[in-house]
Design a protein that fits this description.
By secondary structure, this protein is an alpha+beta fold. Helix content is about 55%, strand content about 10%. The structure holds adenosine-5'-triphosphate and magnesium ion. Adenosine-5'-triphosphate binds next to loops.
Length: about 425
């Protein structure tokens, strides 16, 4: 009875006031000039506006924010009119992209708590949301408590409705509201939980982890193109190895890439290598990870290929499209990396010069070296190529002389090529 009375008292008194926190430690990184400019323009036009989401979270964790989001009570059309270089984007969750100089600021209008303007499917998944509300309602529509913090530059306060500051201190990823409902509304949130946990070293709350299996299944309903965007964020942000270690412990790895073996040492090595490259400022392409993740599938198809079958690379990429859709240019990249493996293993003397100037030689060689980390049978070949690239002409002659006889002879015909394909495929999947 007492509980019921308290409930009604709370209802009458309205929602609890947010915590306003002043003694936070923001580095200068969070005070992004362009985002502050956007807020200032909105404020001078009589609107509320705050920094929100990842930038506030990251700044509190002493991590440099990747981008800046602003939440306001100004309608999207008004925001768009106030900034010359801006446009409304997004169908599911419309927002305004504002460009100032080289910066892109994402401005969203406060979202309302669930109403009839939010369109769900029959399993509770949100299909469209264009219902606008108050700052408080906006906070409760965000996914995790740590993502629902607002920073008001004029008062220098963090506004916290949901206990996000405490969860940042406790290093915890927790949903706002009921976990099952929030995952049903948007199953991609499970991938976001893994991503933020890997990025910040936070733990994921136990109730989220116990819903992983259902959420993984529900990813089937997500458009594959959206999952590709999420794939990029998961693996090309500098903490792919940690993300992959978490994904492969759950059904999520195979929900995204059904044909891969989650325990594959090649995949783990490639994730680590991607992180290192990002750290060192080297170039990265999603195509390389696509090649790694689908390598086993390509090999299996290549091994069992009959003359009348489709190109195995094409078949591999096609079978992936309904999960995480791979844009054509990255699929082509993966295919080129796969097909060059055979040539790198064979080292046909007559085409060595052409091979080293092939546009995928470097990526193909990197791929071979990654395989060599866990596959003894490829190691000698990878080492050979490492030496060959650094060798002068006379050393190259010596290296060529060391090659098995078959490589030094002219390649005579299709049967031979096929045999080599099969042997290279079986050595490299090993
Ligand atoms: P980062 O930019 O570092 O990837 P972020 O938290 O800023 O992290 P964004 O995708 O930029 O992530 O989203 C900005 C904010 O919008 C989030 O912090 C969160 O408050 C809200 N948000 C984004 N995606 C969702 C979602 N699927 N469900 C609910 N809220 C979301
Ligand atoms: Mg962001």
């Amino acid at each position: 009875m007492k509980q019921v009375l308290n409930f009604f008292r709370r209802k009458q008194a309205g929602p609890p006031a947010p915590r306003r926190i002043r003694d936070h430690h923001f580095g200068p990184d969070v005070l992004d000039a362009s985002a502050l400019k956007v807020i200032e323009v909105l404020n001078t036009n009589g609107f509320q506006a705050y920094l929100v989401g990842g930038c506030v979270r990251d700044a509190l964790c002493a991590v440099k924010p990747k981008d800046f989001d602003v939440a306001t009570d100004a309608p999207l059309e008004t925001v768009s009119k106030l900034f010359r270089r801006s446009r409304i984007v997004g169908r599911r969750f419309p927002i305004v992209h504002v460009r100032l100089g080289r910066d892109l600021i994402e401005v969203s209008t406060f979202r309302q708590s669930i109403s009839d303007k939010v369109v769900h499917d029959d399993r509770g998944m949100i299909l469209r949301d264009s219902a606008f509300g108050t700052l408080q309602e906006d906070a409760f529509r965000r996914d995790f408590t740590v993502n629902a913090l607002y920073y008001d530059p004029s008062s220098r306060e963090i506004i916290d409705f949901v206990g996000g500051v405490d969860d940042i201190k406790a290093k915890k990823i927790r949903f706002i509201g009921d976990t099952k409902t929030r995952l049903a509304e948007d199953p991609v949130r499970i991938l976001r939980a893994v991503r933020f946990s890997a990025k910040l070293g936070f733990s994921i709350s136990a109730d989220i982890m116990s819903s992983v299996k259902t959420a993984a299944k529900r990813l089937e309903a997500i458009p594959p193109a959206r999952l590709f965007d999420e794939f990029l964020k998961l693996f090309l942000s500098g903490y792919a190895e940690t993300v992959w270690r978490q994904l492969r412990e759950t059904p999520l790895a195979n929900a995204l890439f059904p044909s891969c073996a989650p325990s594959s040492p090649l995949i783990l090595a490639a994730m680590r290598n991607t992180d290192d490259r990002i750290l060192n400022g080297a170039s990265i392409t999603p195509g390389f990870l696509v090649a790694v993740l689908l390598w086993d599938d390509f090999n299996a198809r290549n091994d069992s290929r009959e003359p009348e079958d489709d190109d195995p690379a094409f078949a591999t990429l096609k079978s992936q499209q309904s999960y995480v859709a791979i844009p054509r240019r990255f699929g082509t990249f993966a295919r080129e990396v796969w097909t060059i493996q055979e040539r790198l293993l064979k080292r046909n003397v007559r085409s060595l010069d052409r091979l080293v100037t092939h546009k995928r030689f470097r990526a193909g060689y990197d791929f071979l070296c990654l395989q060599a980390e866990s596959d003894e049978s490829v190691r000698a070949c990878a080492d050979w190529w490492s030496e060959f690239q650094n060798a002068d002409d006379s050393k190259r002659e010596t290296l060529i002389a060391q090659l098995p006889k078959t490589s030094r002879k002219r390649n005579r015909g299709r049967n031979k090529r096929r045999a080599a394909t099969q042997s290279s495929a079986s050595t490299s999947t090993g």
